[in-house]
Design goal:
This is Acyl-CoA dehydrogenase YdbM. By secondary structure, the chain is of the alpha+beta class. The protein has helices at about 10-35, 40-50, 70-80, 85-105, 110-120, 245-270, 285-310, 315-320, 320-345, 360-365, 375-385; strands spanning about 125-130, 145-150, 155-165, 170-180, 185-190, 195, 210-220, 225-230. The protein has three domains: about 10-120, Acyl-CoA dehydrogenase/oxidase, N-terminal domain (Butyryl-Coa Dehydrogenase, subunit A, domain 1, Orthogonal Bundle); about 125-235, Butyryl-CoA Dehydrogenase, subunit A, domain 2 (Beta Barrel), CATH 2.40.110; about 245-390, Butyryl-CoA Dehydrogenase, subunit A, domain 3 (Up-down Bundle), CATH 1.20.140.10.
Length: about 400
Amino acid sequence: MEREHRFIRNETERSRWQVIHALSRQFAARAAEHDQAASFPHENIADLRACGYVHWTVPKAYGGEEISLYEMLLCQEELARGDGSTALAIGWHVGMMLNLRTTRPFPEDVFAEVCRSCVTDGALINSCATEPATGSPSRGGKPQTRAVPVDGGYRIRGRKTFSTLSPALSWILVTATVEGTDEVGEFLVRGEQVRIEETWNTMSMRATGSHDIVLEDVFVPERYRVGTVGPGGQKARQDDGGGWMLHIPACYLGIALAARDIAAEYAATYQPNSLPHPIAQVPHIQEKLGQMELKLLAARTLMYDLAARWDSGSPEARVAMKHEFGAAKTLATNAAIEVVDLAMRIVGARSLWRDMPLERLYRDVRAGLHNPPMDDATYRMLAQAAVAPYTKAPQA
């Protein structure tokens, strides 16, 4: 039995969601194979290109659909119900295009080039900033990747880790310390200019293609230096609050929904010979099912409410929501872990078998703890927001 998505608001959203729903079912059939082999799901990406999803967040002026953040989350959550790896990977692309659409950090001719390549060629983009020595860029580490000024541009050498979607990227936004300065620049690099080392061999999200990319004396024209990063990894450009990063909680909530569906169907249909009815009527099973529903309802309601407010909000209002986006991510990822755990308790030891999706969902959902913002950063932001009204401004 299919569940109607309770957060769909209109027929336009429903029509596009149904396209993604159909793809999600196909991706689910392939997920175990890619998980076992840690292989990149090229056929899934091809399907997302064929249906046009890769340019749904591109501005209409450049041929895209310009869908809202809210609708992007509807789609991302649904993709993750089929395959979390595919959803997380493509989420960085569609989310980043939405962010670029909102903030316009690139020179307009460069942005137009990226958008049109996305629409006409299915080109994909992601930002790759993490390095072995610096860890997550959100922690403020300065990149060891170096950009040396030369005639007409820069020569860049370095290595980036956790480069999700790397086997399919046409554009890569990399950070590099500019030689002879204290600046950290952002540079657009073509996918064919880098070497991919297939280092991604993890227990979770095994099919995201988050390999290392190696830049070996890559030449980047001056026009493709598109930004400067300030202290603490902050972008020296317009801030939109980071609403696009809600694609992360949407992904993990999608994984949790898949686990919930498995557990609910199992509870409604499994009847051991020790009982006169399915286990769904057993009180402790009902309690677990109820806990799952409550956790999902709370996390999803917060996420979609924030997305709707971001879509309709002013630039100033969006920036002020940053700590709330962190709260949504932390609430969602931790709730998703708890939901998958409850699903496995309902199904019992059978959930450990490799021929059931639950053990893969259990592994995949834990990766959310390591996507930004991390829990400690969220709690710090929330604490600062709580005391801000009572904090005296420093004296001049």
